[in-house]
Design goal:
two-stranded antiparallel sheet; 5% strand; single chain; 2 strands
């Protein structure tokens, strides 16, 4: 199964991981919900159609609910931090442009901005 998953996984975010999903909360995604329907570790799911393709799941292990370790949470926290930081940088940049150039917005003229054949 692992060899086939490594060869035929087409999902770009999972191709480098050879189709392996790390430990996930059952309600994280449709993938984790489908995998949760497998009763015993080592068993496989039926073919499931989702996200524009087909998937087969193998349940490697089932663990009880617990807090994530640092290593398990690191990628998730890092991604969230990058998103927050990126939004802050964007807001700061837009604010600096607004302060520097002091734009005037003419909402009453907006309807003419995309008029066909308008040269004004």
């Amino acid at each position: 199964f692992d060899t086939v998953a490594a060869l035929y996984t087409e999902r770009p975010s999972k191709k480098k991981d050879k189709g392996i999903y790390e430990l996930q909360d059952v309600n994280t995604s449709e993938f984790s919900k489908a995998a949760n329907n497998i009763l015993n570790a080592g068993e496989y799911s039926q073919v499931v159609q989702m996200a524009g393709g087909f998937s087969i799941f193998k349940l490697n292990e089932r663990q009880p609910a617990r807090e994530k370790t640092f290593e398990e949470a690191k990628a998730e926290v890092s991604g969230e931090y990058q998103e927050i930081f990126s939004k802050k940088l964007e807001q700061d940049y837009l604010k600096s442009l607004e302060t520097r150039y002091k734009p005037e917005i003419f909402y009453d003229k907006l309807e003419y901005a995309f008029a066909q054949g308008n040269t004004n």
